Amino acid sequence: MKAPPFTYHRPDTLDAALSLLAEHGDDAKILAGGQSLIPLMGLRMGRPDHIIDIGRIPGLSDITVHDDRSVTLGALVRHEQANTSADVAEHQPLIAATMPWVAHRAIRTRGTVLGSIAHGDPAAEMPAVVLATGATLVATSASGRREIAARDFFEGYLDTALRADEILTEVTFPAWPSDAVGSVVEVARRHGDYALVGLVARLEIDAGDIITNAALAFFGAASTAIRVPTAEDILLGARANAKTFASAAQIVASELNPPADIHGTTAYRKHLASTLTRQGLEAAVATIGVPS
Predict the structure, then answer these.
(1) Which among 18, 17, 180 has a CA at the least distance from the CA of 95?
(2) What is the C-alpha separation between 12 and 16, in angstroms, rounded?
(3) How far apart are CA 38 and CA 44, in angstroms?
(4) Whole-prediction pTM value?
(5) pLDDT per residue over 69-90, tens digit each?
(6) pLDDT tens digits for 112-156?
(7) How far apart are CA 86 and CA 291, in angstroms?
(8) What are the residue ranges of helices labelled H in 223-265?
(9) Which residues pair with residue 204 across a beta bridge?
(10) Cβ(6)–Cβ(49) under 8 Å?
(11) Tag placement on the chain: N or C end, fewer CB within 10 Å?
């Protein structure tokens, strides 16, 4: 379907884009990669009167590694750029592990990492990644910048803490600890489809194989990406083995209450979440950033 009529703006600077947002407010939407916005407009799920294309604003496509080894991605960093970045692979391997799961290569080439986060689709991978890593998001408006913790960013289905006059300009991922491991697992009808259920798992494991920190962030299991603190708590202080992972999986099955749709019942999605918990934790200790 064709998009409804709109006025197109292509500012050359961030300040100009923010001025346009301040002027038009709820009647405007930001266009970066357009891989979420344009389909929504075609389906009439979004009818903005003004489209503000930030695609040519310099300085927004940077990937920066800071002295403390944290990693910042700008608003125009494409999924494929993150996928091929040596800095991302070294300093935030969980992002690198996520990228092959995101849609298809054509979409990854155009779609932006921050666009996916700002869109807040509960079945997308990147919202779960920012939750699992404890990332910090920066929202910028004409009146200034504000930092938002990942846990406070996702408020409901396709609903985030971003205000109408703000652009999500940065996301900073904290340094990846030397004792951290992680994985991304999901079940989808076809590779590249949105997940029926998926999991981003992150653990910190000491030299005695004891889990000292844990994050289990699920996508496709609620109205937003969601962590399961009770399952994380049972992992803390326990040995990283199959018995521990099975216990966490049982808690996930009892705690989550995924919505049903034509692709799967609540019971089916609970089963998937439980199975993925065990598989994801086992994959984490076998793959990403395993302590030497």
Answers:
(1) 180
(2) 7
(3) 10
(4) 0.94
(5) 999 999 999 999 999 999 999 9
(6) 999 999 999 999 999 999 999 999 999 999 999 999 999 999 999
(7) 20
(8) 229-235, 242-255
(9) 180, 213
(10) yes
(11) C
